[in-house]
Write a structure and sequence with these properties.
InterPro entries: RlpA-like_sf. Keywords: Signal. It comes from Streptomyces prasinosporus. This is Secreted protein. The protein is an alpha+beta fold. The protein has a domain of 152 residues: Barwin-like endoglucanases. 35% of the residues lie in helices and 15% in strands. It has an eight-stranded mixed sheet. Helix 2 packs antiparallel against helix 3. About 16% of the residues have low confidence.
């Protein structure tokens, strides 16, 4: 005949407390796990992504343009600045959507063009480029802005460009050497780089998902 094992009142109380402790510890672990904050989303800088670099360059170019207008204002400066501030706001939206650092600016990312001494007298029919540079006097069909990268201004409208070297009315041909696509556009305004394409012109030569043309051939054609 088997004997059933029995526990005294004190032993039963000890066992109940032990079970409650284990259960409580498990509940604490589960609560800690469920309340843990999700890992923060990481953002990419211009150094991490070609897309982010292109957007940072576009933002920097527009900031440089605004700074130039404020340093040397004219009757149209206020309207130009308001337009570029709207462009900067749109670029920041694109930065956020692309996972880039919002507001990151790469003002120095455009390679500086070598300064050339201004001629004592301009050639007949010629016109000096912006900021005293001689880009505006380049012959038609001549390659210009060697080594420059090309990005977009964020401005709408028909295909066009802005430049700090060529006066309004100059026609430039921009070729993306990475996909052999070209566009010929007219300079319509001033910017902080050799060639800055508006949205429509940039769409004609861009690679999908990229906001910067690293290998560009730029020619003055008229």
């Amino acid at each position: 005949m088997s004997r059933r094992r029995t526990f005294g009142p004190k032993k039963k109380l000890a066992l109940l407390l032990s079970a409650a402790t284990v259960a409580g510890g498990g509940a604490f672990v589960m609560a800690t796990t469920s309340n843990a904050s999700p890992p923060a989303a990481t953002t990419k800088s211009a150094a991490d992504s070609t897309v982010c670099q292109g957007l940072a360059t576009a933002l920097g170019n527009n900031e440089r343009f605004i700074a130039g207008q404020r340093a040397n204002p004219d009757a149209q400066s206020e309207a130009r600045i308001a337009n570029r501030e709207a462009v900067i706001a749109q670029i920041k939206v694109q930065q956020e959507a692309s996972g880039c650092t919002v507001g990151e600016s790469a003002q120095g990312s455009q390679p500086a063009q070598p300064e050339q001494p201004a001629p004592s007298q301009p050639a007949a029919g010629g016109q000096a480029g912006q900021d005293g540079q001689a880009g505006g006097g380049a012959a038609a069909g001549e390659q210009v802005c060697n080594g420059s990268t090309v990005t977009l201004s964020g401005e709408a409208g028909a295909p066009a460009a802005s430049s700090n070297q060529f006066p309004a009315g100059t026609r430039l041909k921009v070729t993306n050497l990475d996909n052999d696509k070209s566009t010929t556009v007219e300079v319509t305004s001033v910017s902080g780089s050799c060639v800055l394409l508006n949205n429509a012109a940039f769409e004609q030569v861009r690679e999908p998902g990229k906001f910067l043309i690293r290998r560009a051939l730029i020619e003055k054609v008229g």
